[in-house]
Amino acid sequence: TQLLEQSPQFLSIQEGENLTVYCNSSSVFSSLQWYRQEPGEGPVLLVTVVTGGEVKKLKRLTFQFGDARKDSSLHITAAQPGDTGLYLCAGVKTSYDKVIFGPGTSLSVIP
Amino acid sequence: DTGVSQNPRHKITKRGQNVTFRCDPISEHNRLYWYRQTLGQGPEFLTYFQNEAQLEKSRLLSDRFSAERPKGSFSTLEIQRTEQGDSAMYLCASSRRSGAPTVANTGELFFGEGSRLTVL
After folding, report:
1. Cα angle for residues A96, A97, A102 (degrees, 5° grid)
2. Of A32, A4, A3, which is closest to residue A105 (Cα–Cα)?
3. What's the pLDDT at B1?
4. Which one of B33, B100, B103 has the shortest CB-CB distance to A30?
5. Does residue A103 sit at the B interface (CB-CB below 8 Å)?
């Protein structure tokens, strides 16, 4: 049973379109992180959210942590081919707990 | 600081053989994680250490898998009597983690480039 679910699993869009990726759980997390992974490389951190309701922006990327700290979303505005990759959400349930990952959303942005 | 280093990058072995992977984390990081990843999927937790103490091992992991971090620095992951289902990318990550996550202490994981295992 996955503690973290992500949707959609795959997403293929045209350059310039907007998209949203979701990360959901029935469990409460003390923090959630979003990573991006390119083929042949390890995941790289994009953002960490720690407060329920928190919104963070990173250029064209907007991250939101749900009020109940059970879910998060990643919105990309005007997607570019360089945004192509596997987007992973990862959570920590308590301060001293391990980091677990969702199954990922594979994004392909077509020029 | 050269980042997280993993060796070997690629390993091809025959079923039934033993393999060992090594991870050298970022020097000041107290936590070290091992994950397994198959193509297009998220990393699956295997085990993690805080300094030299192994805090948890996944219940999905058979007794053929063992990991050590003897001096709280580098770590090894050994797979005994490999099976074809063990074929995957084995990722190591390290972090500096203490207390509750904050803006300044996000517990960010820094990953190595992985060790790809192919069992024939």
Report:
1. 145
2. A4
3. 55
4. B100
5. yes
